[in-house]
Write a structure and sequence with these properties.
This protein is α/β, with parallel strands linked by helices and about 600 residues long. About 30% of the residues lie in helices and about 15% in strands. It is globular, with a radius of gyration of 25 Å. The structure holds flavin-adenine dinucleotide and NADP nicotinamide-adenine-dinucleotide phosphate (NAP). Flavin-adenine dinucleotide binds near residues 67 and 73.
Length: about 600
């Protein structure tokens, strides 16, 4: 911690958390010049990343966590706890280990590429131990209220009220606050859309209350919703039930974890692929993907084909679902029209009798009950935040919401990047634009989301991993200099451009630079292969498939070079910068 900083006043750590001490010769208190004590709440993966980023920036974090452990959603409990996320026993993450790790702490090589929730907890514990984060967390302490102080426009400070597990309330003052409460705690249970549910004789509950399938052996069950929860639970239940029905009101494109040559699918989404996505007309890019998915199984034949395009919906990833459908244990059904006793009628008029269980895998709602609505309000999962982090209307940028995104990719590195940005904003190293500019950016993003995604409460905080990481990284000054690396370190440069956009890329330069980043990038494929090396095999080692990435990458670079022949170096430097220019040449733009 900075030696410039004076001591905290107040008799106990919990009494007056802040207190200003500025060197006498310095100008009046600004957050950049005084000791900043941050309050975080949420000891999940976003909270851990925030504590680490605060420490990296010389800030003093205090984290309040309402439960008795770290891990947030990934901390499995046999019984769901109120107001907390809850997962089923078998959850395996669908973002691969190289894409979901924190940027300066690779997941051990021997861990599987897609980890069970227990291994994810192991990784979070290693991270917390390695950077000694636990001592900053006050467990069993819930934040009840967060209010701007009366001198907020000058001080930017917050009054915070907490309550511990014995019901003891305390008040604190903090210089800045990061909210890391996740957005999968409160179930969306749209019973009003299901007439007759009150007459239903079976059992029903939300997917957050589902734990294991055993109880439903030889029963008839319906799962409503075809997000990742619906897909996972339908597959698992169908192994024991007499019959499982999967009800979806609009269908879905189903992706695999296992991509070509058995590699994790998310490793294919590199920078060039992201650029191609932006260059090509949306419909064309979707069409290419849909054709590939239909080669695996015909979505129309399986009655899953939606009306919308592949990238207009948050992806459902499920390698096993087509197998279950083909073997008849899962039957795909349309939306439920009504319940009557124990029978269920679907929109196509078909009726299933004697239903024992309905699982509503109908997603989640988020809210900020501890905040006044003029600070941040959320309605129907919409909140107006600058780049999903900063409320634009505050006099002082001392409140950040971390992890409130739904990425096509992993949340953890994104939360970490947001935390790197927020802590530097708090310190005054980065200035936010004017309120009008922030609001304009918010509206732009909302319009882009509305144009791309089907209207649904689940599509309000969507981000594309590579683009969003680059966007925030640019603000922080940590976006990799690809042209520079291609010229000075071609092996690394090619990996940055054509390899998976792993989080280590954002530790090569700028604040928070990590000396191990280059090596982590150059060894990432070894960590992908390592967990499979469990039997000596005489065959040549399974080669990773770079065919598609290379073909698409070459096509993209060629297209960009053709359209903008004299600007190729600039394109390599910043693959996204020329996109607007290129787009005008394309059909349908
Ligand atoms: C079934 C399921 C599977 C998922 N799979 C993936 C995946 O494959 N990849 C991926 O990237 N994401 C996945 N997610 C998203 C998941 O939300 C993130 O992976 C991640 O857990 C978010 O971390 P977080 O720290 O932001 O929130 P959480 O993990 O939810 O942690 C929030 C913490 O805040 C605490 N808290 C809340 N309110 C208060 C309060 N008032 N006071 C004090 N403490 C409070 C909670 O106790 C909790 O510990 C999945 C979500 C679900 C539901
Ligand atoms: N293994 C994993 O890694 C894993 C497992 C589970 C969840 N997750 C993640 O956790 C998050 C939440 O996933 P989720 O599946 O729980 O929720 P979700 O993605 O929001 O999906 C909700 C589903 O319910 C449907 N639905 C909502 N309201 C409905 C209504 N009134 N009537 C009929 N259908 C309705 C939605 O249909 P519409 O599309 O029509 O709105 C959608 O199919 C996601 O980020 C997901 O990726 C990951």
């Amino acid at each position: 911690m900075s030696s410039l900083l004076s001591k905290q006043t107040g008799s106990s750590p919990s009494s007056r958390q802040h207190l200003i001490q500025v060197r006498p010769e310095l100008p009046p208190p600004t957050i950049a010049t005084r000791r900043v004590i941050l309050q975080l709440f949420g000891g999940g993966s976003s909270g851990l990343a925030c504590i680490k980023c605060c420490l990296d920036e010389g800030l003093e974090p205090v984290c309040f966590e309402s439960s008795d452990d770290i891990g947030g959603l990934w901390r499995f409990k046999e019984n769901p706890e109120p107001d907390r996320a809850s997962i089923y026993h078998s959850v395996i993450i669908n973002t691969s280990k190289e894409m979901m790790c924190f940027s300066d702490f690779p997941i051990p090589a021997h861990f599987p590429n897609f980890m069970h929730n227990s291994l994810i907890m192991d990784y979070f514990r290693m991270y917390a131990d390695n950077f000694q984060l636990i001592k900053y967390i006050r467990f069993n302490t819930k934040v009840l209220q967060l209010k701007q102080r009366s001198d907020f426009s000058h001080s930017g400070q917050w009054d915070v009220e907490t309550e511990n597990k014995d019901g003891k309330k305390e008040k604190h003052i903090f210089d800045a606050v990061m909210i890391c409460i996740g957005h999968h705690c409160h179930p969306n249970m749209p019973l009003q859309d299901f007439p007759g549910i009150d007459t239903f004789k079976g059992k029903y509950f939300h997917s957050r209350d589902y734990k294991t399938p055993e109880e439903w052996r030889n029963k008839k069950a319906i799962v409503v919703g075809i997000g990742n929860s619906g897909g996972d639970i339908a597959v698992e239940l169908s192994r024991v039930t007499k019959q499982l029905y999967l009800s979806t009101r609009r269908g879905a494109w189903i992706l695999n974890r296992v991509g070509d040559n058995g590699l994790p699918l998310d490793l294919i989404f590199n920078r060039v692929m992201d650029s191609v996505r932006k260059i090509l007309p949306f419909g064309f890019f979707c069409g290419v993907g849909e054709r590939q998915l239909n080669q695996r199984f015909d979505h129309a034949l399986y009655n899953l084909k939606p009306k919308h395009r592949l990238f207009s919906q948050h992806p459902t990833v499920n390698d096993e679902l087509p197998n279950r459908i083909l073997s008849g244990t899962v039957q795909v059904k349309p939306n439920i029209r009504r319940f009557q006793g124990s029978s269920v009628e679907f929109d196509d008029g078909s009726v299933v009798e004697d239903v024992d269980l309905v699982v509503f895998a109908t997603g989640y709602r988020f809210s900020f009950p501890f905040l006044a609505s003029h600070v941040v309000s959320a309605s129907e999962n919409k909140a107006s935040l600058y780049k999903y982090v900063f409320p634009p209307e505050l006099d002082r940028p001392t409140l950040a919401i971390i992890g409130l995104v739904q990425p096509l990719g992993a949340i953890m590195p994104i939360s970490e990047m947001q935390a790197r940005w927020a802590t530097r904003v708090f310190k005054g190293c980065i200035k936010l634009p004017s309120m009008a500019a922030m609001q304009k950016d918010i509206v732009c993003k909302q319009q882009a989301m509305a144009a791309r995604y089907v209207p649904s409460q689940r599509h309000t905080i969507q981000v594309d991993y590579v683009s969003y990481m680059d966007e925030i990284a640019k603000l922080v000054g940590v976006r990799p200099n690809i042209l520079g690396k291609l010229l000075t370190d071609p092996r690394l440069g090619l990996n940055l451009l054509f390899g998976p956009c792993t989080p280590y890329q954002f530790r090569l330069r700028g604040p928070g630079k990590w000396a191990g980043a280059r090596q982590a990038i150059l060894t990432q494929w070894e960590r992908v292969a390592c967990p499979m090396q469990t039997r000596p095999c005489d065959e040549p080692k399974c080669k990773r498939s770079l065919m598609w990435p290379l073909i698409l990458s070459t096509a993209a670079v060629g297209l960009a070079a053709y359209v903008n022949r004299n600007s190729l170096p600039a394109f390599l430097q910043d693959p996204t910068a020329l996109l607007d220019k290129i787009k005008v040449y394309l059909p349908g733009q």
